[in-house]
Amino acid sequence: MRTSHLLRSSLLAVAVAGAWACDDGGGQDPFVPDATGAGGAGGATPDMGAGGTGGAGGMGGAGGAGGAGGAGGAGGMGGAGGAGGAGGMGGEGGMGGAGGTGGMGGDATPEAVAVAEVGDDTYLAWAAGDALRLARVDASGELVRTDGALWVAADTLDGPVAGVDTITASGAPFAGYATADGPTQLRFLDSLIEAPLSLGLVGPPQLAATAQGGADAVLAVAQAPDGGLAWQVVQVRADGTTTLGDVIRDASGLPAPDDVAGFGGGFVLRFGGPGQCVQIAADGQGPASFPCVLATGSVVTDSQRARLLFREVVDVDGTDVDTWGVLPLFGAQGAEAYTVGIANDDAHLASGAEAAVVFDPLLEPGDAVRLGFVGFDSLYEGPLVDAWAWPTARAAFRRGDTGYVLAFGDDGAPLLETVALTARDFEGPAWGIEADAGCVPSAEVCNGADDDCDGAPDNGLCCPSSNQALFSQRLIPTTFATGGETLSFEPDQFLIADVENQDAWRVAMRYTHEGQTHWTGRVVYTSDDTRNAPVERMPNFGDRVSGAAPEPWAVDAVEGIALRAVGGYTLLLGRDAEGHVTASWTYYVARNAENLGNGAPKDPEDLDALHACGDLDGDGTIDPAPPGAPASWPVLAIDTIDHTDQAASALVICPRKALRLYPQRDAETGEPRANVEIPLVTLDADNNRTPLDVPAAWATIRRVDGDVIPVIYGYHRAGTWEVMGGNFVAGNSNRLQLTRPSAFTDVPATEAELGAPIFSHPNPVGPYLQITDEGRSARVRVRGVDGAWSWQPVVAGQLDRLAYNPTQSRLVAAREVGDTTEFYMLDLSDKDDLNLWTTRPVLTVTAPERLWDLSLGARLGQFQLGGYRDILAVFTRDAEGAWRVVSHGVDCRGN
């Protein structure tokens, strides 16, 4: 954090230390503190003599004043202005003395112009080459002149100023500006003595302000130094002090917003393309997303409510006409837009609190146009004119019933013209649009309230009232039997596995008894009609069922990594007391090894000892996880790849190899069935397969129907990231058919781009999903109509955890809010109609303790209970300490 104090004085009356020259040499510019731009004043001459010539103005500076002539002598000629500078004034001559001529040179008409209004003053800022220039219009509506200058050069940068924005905060005007890739500057416009604030951003910013306690918060949105959208909050107090907040970089890959505005103690970023808004708190934290108008336009706000001035093609007497219209920014679905007039390409002018536009009246003949000022609840119109008279106009603002148009002369000097205005009379509320003044929009949550101010509570991408299905809610018995005694336990860990036909969950729970780690299993059915037993113990898994029951097959793990149902077997992948990865198999149905046609389960296997899963260098010891490694390291991915009796198996991907694990012993010999090792490979320059000489950092598996299982993995080699993708053929070949996916051949090989897990899509040309930021952000790589691939962010507010169902292309995101977990869901299955914004939770769970996991669910087209796809299991513990599991099915399609 950094604090600065800004001194206040008049914009065009800055006191500068040092004497001005009294000859015709270069003196010091009274408007630029570093004195690099102005000519000196001409020297005084004797009676009847000519005044001295003013010095030449520097770049952007004003020429010096001509010297005072004697009686009848001609005043000195004003110095030549620099680029865009005004010539010096002629000296005050005696009888008949003439003023000096203006300096030569000038600027092209600027494109980047911004307006800030403070009390009775209006501040104008614009870019002119590599300079930021400023002017002020006083309470009388006149451009302020001080010693002949209409503007000052506030700053000269190292390159062309790429953009300018202004804002008023705590009664003070500010301008934000920068070159295209230079540091973002924020300058207080009432003083040019103190240097501008240098923010931690790059490039020209978009600015917004909102009240926060005893200070106003200014939000600057630009780029992070290392790329990507970022923002920074500056606290501005009434005494002129400022405090810079931390730079917050967007982790989801948001593009630059169309608009930034302050609302009710926070900020909103509007993205017109997808029709979404993102809310950011006054301290910069966020974002949370919610829908807004999908249109091209600009926000008009009273700092609490908002409307959008937008362009839309409408039918007027059978002709499609491009018009300006007004809609509520939030909840515009079904609202009727108020049409202002036909859009004119001449001007959508920079303005202060209102939007200033030039438009053609809808029903007026000919090419007549008028100037309009669109406020939140008002519209002021100028008179009809045959043609727009100010082609160099770049800004306009309104005071009462007078409009002011800022244009620029051939010499680059600002020109101010006035236009008489008339307030438009409305029948009923302004714009014909009802607005709830007390509604401050935020992301919709399932609370019965209209959080996003669209007139409908709890509506959204997946409506909980119609899509949420609670298949079962049953107490999980947290007891076990030992020595004829039943004892209760506190679970240390839950793991779940979905069953192939999607009618049940298998649940493994870890607990500690007398200092030893134990496991117990439960089966949670998703319908009361299934076997009439909603919850029962998982046979042969972990602890005894009763004192008289046969010993179960062993489970060797002090920590679980994953649980999978593999046909009739259950696989618990975990770590033993020495940190080795172990595979423990049990059989689900049979109470003993008799009559097991598929073969009895193997004893627990040490995958590190047998297959060097975590021993990357082969020295016999487990290597530590590298930075950024998944929590399951060294297991990068695991899934069931075959449920059939004889081929039941799971695929485990480790940093050096993939392992196909078989669960059973040979039914005749009793020998364990050998697992299959498949080394990970890469492709050389000639596209030949070569062993991967570095460990993979991440991998993903997507379960599909049949023997072909898509696999993707990424690794860091020779300073760059590479991605390999393809299929694991599960038949008799046990082969990885790999290539470099075309979607990633042109991606910058940086950790930010490829160093996080990437999932493939069921459709061969569908989007790839990447989960980043340690599981808290996501984005998809999509193919455009031109065939080019690009990243697009997935936005679901400020998240704590993401999980992906690759079978159904469903992304579930969770956000913790106190004792509540909000679940958002995004459907990625339709590659041609992606909505990458999740705006409302499909499920809200409130409990003192909450755990959840995601099922892979049934394959598309397979058995689906009640028309739902059951993919989410939430474990909660109530106030009495009882754990429950609720199995949820949500279908986002068609909504």
Short description:
The protein has 895 residues and is mainly beta. It contains 3 helices and 60 strands.
Structure description:
By secondary structure, this protein is mainly β. Strands 1, 6, 7, 8, 9, 10, 11, 12 and 13 form a nine-stranded antiparallel β-sheet that branches. Strands 18-19-20-21-22-23-24-28 form an eight-stranded antiparallel β-sheet, with no helix packed on it. The protein has a four-stranded antiparallel β-sheet with strand order 2-3-4-5, with no helix packed on it. Residues 1-106, 461-472, 528-532, 545-550 and 858-868 have low confidence and may be disordered.
> Structural class of the helices, strands and pairings?
mainly beta
Total beta-strand segments: 60
Please report which band the strand proportion falls in: under 5%, 5-15%, 15-25%, 25-35%, 35-45% or over 45%. Answer: 35-45%
Q: Whole-Å distance between the termini?
A: 45 Å
Counting H and I runs of at least 4 residues, what is the number of helices?
Answer: 3
